[in-house]
Amino acid sequence: MKNSESERIIQVIRGTGILPAIVFKSQAWIEPLGQILKKTGFGAVEVLFRSAGASEAVREFKRKFPDLLVGAGTVLTCEQASEAFEAGADFIISPGYGDKLVDFCLQRNKLIIPGCSSASEIQRAYEAGLRVLKLFPAERLGGIGAVKDLAAPFSGVEFIPTGGINMDNLDGYMQNNRVLAVGGSFMAPYSLLESERYEAVADLYEKAARAAVGFRFAHVGVNCQSDAEAVDSARRLSALFGFPVTEKANSVYSGTGVEYLRRGGYGEKGHIGIRTYSMERAITYLKARGAEFIEESRKYDAAGNLSCVYLKEEIAGFAVHIVK
Question: Of 54, 110, 119, 221, which alpha carbon lies 20 to 30 A from 148's?
Answer without folding.
Answer: 110
